[in-house]
């Protein structure tokens, strides 16, 4: 589905343009550039490059592109591995250029990063290529992008420069690009910002190492204290075990003695019961004897024979 790109409300021109842009940012920058034209053209963004070529008739098709280094940098910032970011860009660009080569005369590549950095120069080149008057208003600003302080920008530049295939693809894109193109080398300000950031990170790393060393020293001290406490605890536990063993031995001896004394007490109680029983028996016998003696002395025969007993033994018996 093709869509019209909105432009500032200062009237539409007499010619139409077909645009294919894979990135919304590139399409927005082109709309910004053409929006400052004194007579802005009518712009339609197409879903595919082939649709744009079919719909444009004999007119050129504008294709704003994000520079290779910026595309790879964005992929790196999104978390892609360097090799993956480079490989994905090469695959997309290879497919894109295959279509561009077949209709090279009708396709106009534009560096999206330069649309705001050098708008007047790019508009003049584009007007000449289209055969249309495309003068920008005098108040059109030059908005040179601030250099990126991200290390990913430098890494992306190194990836492109260090890969022959990526370099060849980037060279072909630049050769087909109308007007000024972005440099593939990181800006000096970018390198200075990265150097400052790395220096700051180095200081932070040093502070982190110092903090880690202090933490490690503290942990080592705590481990020593813990080891000492464990040794003391083991020694105390050993002493307690020895005292417990001694107390158990004493308790066992006391229990044995108590058991023996209990048996002796039972024996003594049994002996006392036997002696009490024997005493009761003897007391009964004694009482019986006393009774018999008393009865004998009270008897008539005992009284009659008293003089005889007295003569025989001089007894004082009654």
Account of the protein in words:
Residues 212-250 form a coiled coil. Keywords: Coiled coil. With 318 residues, this protein is α/β, with parallel strands linked by helices. It has 2 domains: 3-186, no CATH class; 200-300. It is built from 11 helices and 6 strands. Strands 1-3-2-4-5-6 form a 6-stranded mixed beta sheet. The chain is rod-shaped and about 195 Å long. Residues 7-13 have low confidence and may be disordered.
Summarize this entry quickly:
With 318 residues, this protein is of the alpha/beta class. The chain contains eleven helices and six strands. The termini are far apart.
Judging from the principal axes of the Cα atoms, what is the shape?
rod-shaped
- Regions with pLDDT < 50 over 5+ consecutive residues? 7-13
Percent in strands:
5-15%
- Any idea what the radius of gyration is? 61 Å
Helix coverage percent: 55-70%
Annotation field: number of helices: 11
Q: Name the helix and strand elements from N-terminus to C-terminus, one letter apiece.
A: EEHEHEHHEHHHHEHHH
Mean pLDDT: 82
Between the first and last Cα atoms, what is the distance in angstroms? 162 Å
**How many beta-strand elements?**
6
Q: Mind describing the biggest β-sheet?
A: 6 strands, mixed
- SSE class: alpha/beta
- Count of structural domains: 2
Major sheet strand order: 1-3-2-4-5-6
């Amino acid at each position: 589905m093709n869509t019209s790109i909105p432009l500032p409300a200062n009237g539409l021109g007499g010619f139409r343009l077909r645009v294919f842009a894979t990135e919304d940012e590139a399409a927005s920058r082109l709309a910004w550039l053409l929006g400052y034209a004194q007579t802005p053209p009518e712009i339609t963004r197409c879903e595919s490059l082939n649709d744009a070529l079919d719909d444009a008739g004999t007119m050129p098709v504008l294709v704003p592109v994000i520079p290779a280094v910026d595309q790879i940098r964005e992929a790196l910032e999104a978390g892609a591995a360097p090799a993956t970011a480079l490989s994905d860009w090469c695959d997309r660009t290879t497919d894109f250029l295959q279509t561009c080569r077949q209709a090279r005369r009708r396709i106009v590549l534009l560096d999206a990063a330069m649309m705001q950095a050098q708008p007047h120069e790019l508009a003049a080149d584009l007007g000449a290529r289209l055969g249309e008057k495309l003068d920008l208003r005098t108040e059109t600003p030059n908005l040179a992008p601030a250099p990126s302080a991200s290390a990913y920008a430098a890494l992306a530049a190194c990836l492109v420069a260090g890969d022959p295939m990526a370099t060849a693809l980037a060279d072909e894109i630049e050769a087909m690009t109308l007007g000024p193109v972005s440099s593939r080398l990181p800006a000096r300000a970018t390198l200075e910002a990265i150097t400052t950031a790395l220096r700051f990170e180095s200081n932070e790393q040093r502070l982190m190492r110092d903090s880690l060393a202090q933490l490690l020293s503290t942990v080592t001290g705590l481990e020593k204290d813990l080891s000492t406490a464990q040794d003391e605890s083991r020694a105390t536990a050993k002493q307690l075990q020895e005292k417990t063993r001694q107390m158990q031995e004493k308790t066992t001896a006391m229990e044995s003695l108590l058991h023996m004394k209990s048996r002796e007490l039972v024996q003594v109680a049994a002996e006392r019961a036997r002696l009490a029983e024997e005493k009761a028996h003897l007391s009964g016998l004694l009482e019986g004897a006393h009774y018999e003696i008393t009865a004998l002395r009270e008897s008539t025969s005992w009284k009659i024979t008293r003089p005889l007993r007295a003569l025989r033994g001089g007894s004082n018996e009654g």
